[in-house]
Amino acid sequence: MEPVPMLLAMTYRAMGDQFHDRLRQIGLEPLRPAHGYVFRFLKERRATTVDIGQHLGVTKQAAAKIVTELDEWGYVLREPHPTDKRAQYVTLTTKGRDYLKFADNLWSDLEAEMAEAIGDDTLVTIREGLAAYLRHVHGEDQPGLRPVW
Amino acid sequence: MEPVPMLLAMTYRAMGDQFHDRLRQIGLEPLRPAHGYVFRFLKERRATTVDIGQHLGVTKQAAAKIVTELDEWGYVLREPHPTDKRAQYVTLTTKGRDYLKFADNLWSDLEAEMAEAIGDDTLVTIREGLAAYLRHVHGEDQPGLRPVW
DNA sequence: CAAAGTAGTCAACCAAGTTGTCTAACCTTA
DNA sequence: TAAGGTTAGACAACTTGGTTGACTACTTTG
Description:
- The structure is a homodimer of 149-residue chains.
- Chain A is mostly helical.
- The first copy, chain A, contains six helices and two strands.
- The structure holds a DNA duplex (30 and 30 nucleotides).
């Protein structure tokens, strides 16, 4: 019997590959997973580079590289922090929000197909089961998002 | 609602981190995931470097590096292929088998804890659900194992 | 107000992959 | 059975995406 993490890794890759394929099929430039996760993070809150690094589970330097890329490509911009002169808030541009919206739709499609393949209730159970495990292991604070192969 | 792949990635990492921590707590040198996956692959079959690369989802050159490491560390050895003079079979040494056995016990422990945290039946559903999805997407041939961050 | 801590940047480095090239051996197939 | 295409493995150069370390400017705390 295969260990659960292998199943997780394979499924992660399978879904990611499909996502990636369809994105470029449509002609939208396929960013890396990290970029998408940054968008999603910024959608809900204002955040500094350090915050982003923490969320992704990488160093602030690595996060800074990603933010710089996204900035150059026009998906985010940096604005001065209102009270802390060292810091900057990174925020989504309209282009960034549009990309996220589009990607979310694509994810929905993929999940719908998954639900069709394995059953709606099964998918719900997977979702909730994994979430529950993460809460159990990590309590409140989010774990690193990056898989570390 | 978070996309499923994020949950997969976070869970993969959470379990992997725990595994890693306990391994070194015990004093056993913690190899990388790829090494463990190679052991598991070799347990069941004789395989060449190319086979291993395919299984992991990397190029044969990348696989060759891993095999060389494992060889130097004494976990595997290469023996001549009986009929094909170009090829070599990679096989587990006793040290390799011992490591695998140990790691498997550790995985069992972790899964048992997971089962306790989220319920036995939930874990079974996750297992079978993911496996079913993979069959649905990939048919018979195994997908690449490496997550590709 | 001094000391310790933090955000961001720069630079050097490293790990783990990639592509490309080559040789020797293998597999048609005509 | 020779010829042309394919394959296993090795070697080398390179790319990617991270790391650690050092430093400045600013902030927080005692």
